[in-house]
Amino acid sequence: MPASYAYLGPEGTFTEVALRTLPEAATRELIPYVSVQSALDAVRVGEAEAAFVPIENSVEGGITTTLDELVAGTPLMIYREVLLSITFALLVRPGTKLSDIKTVTAHPAAQPQVRNWLKTHLPDVVWESAASNADGARLVQEGRYDAAFAGEFAAARYGLEALETGIHDAENAQTRFVLVGRPARPAAPTGADKTSVVLWQRDDHPGGLRDLLGEFATRGINLMLLQSRPTGAGIGNYCFCVDAEGHISDRRMAEALMGLKRICLQVRFLGSYPRADVRPGEVRPTFPGTSDEEFVGAADWVARCQDGRF
Ligand SMILES: O=C(O)C(=O)Cc1ccccc1
Description:
Layout: E1 4-8, H1 14-19, E2 29-33, H2 36-44, E3 50-57, E4 61-62, H3 64-71, E5 77-85, E6 88-92, E7 103-106, H4 111-121, E8 126-129, H5 133-141, E9 147-150, H6 154-157, E10 161-167, E11 174-181, E12 193-201, H7 208-217, E13 223-230, E14 238-245, H8 251-263, E15 264-274, H9 292-306
Parallel strand pairs: 1-2, 1-3, 7-8, 7-9
Antiparallel strand pairs: 3-4, 3-11, 5-11, 6-9, 6-10, 12-14, 12-15, 13-14
3-phenylpyruvic acid binds near residues 86 and 107.
Pathway: Amino-acid biosynthesis; L-phenylalanine biosynthesis; phenylpyruvate from prephenate: step 1/1
EC number: 4.2.1.51
Protein name: Prephenate dehydratase
């Protein structure tokens, strides 16, 4: 049996389309799961080699179920990311007219991307959340709802037709997906990488978040995502999901992570992996004084001072 990748299913999700853009997906068995949790659990228990799930979109930010799964439980690691431009189609059973639609469904992350369209075209419709956009299409096929927002490509799979296509409140809306596996050595740096971590503050004090972010800022590391998530320990108790530009084997990133490890209650490393928004082969510039050579040179200088050889 080939190694398998679990993904947020059923067949016909945007997640499946994004997964199929990865060359390695062609050599794996792709198995749909009903939720992000069950796909990630399949990896945790060794049923799947990796899981492919949505993690962020450009309209609402982080997809909290995915972030919360990565923050807690048995540690997992991100190995790849994929960006997909998203527009929705309104899928209905053949013959349904716009005026027939009383109920509509989709994944909760779809709602902020179609809210204005709904207000204009179906102001009185009742929204129900589905486990995924393709699951919403399946529920329309079963007659549970009148319409679903999903990819146009899902229509044929569920015997539906697209009453409207190209629905998107925000121009260029993109969703980011990640391939998640059990912890292992990260892929080698490409020159345009991203590192994801979760940070827990040691205590609550003025400027606490600034202290954490300062570890990145003083080493010239740009941040690409900062999302607080409740720890569950009470109001005001948060951990921080951070995506930072660079790879853990870059000296500046390694030093920033060492700094965070010293000052945080806990740091969870979620992986270093190639950025999907940069062309392969393109190397990101570093800020003055933050290249590997400059870190090595500075460490040598300190060693020579300690030896009285400067
Ligand atoms: O992959 C899907 O179809 C999903 O249900 C997740 C999702 C939700 C909204 C936009 C893109 C992907």
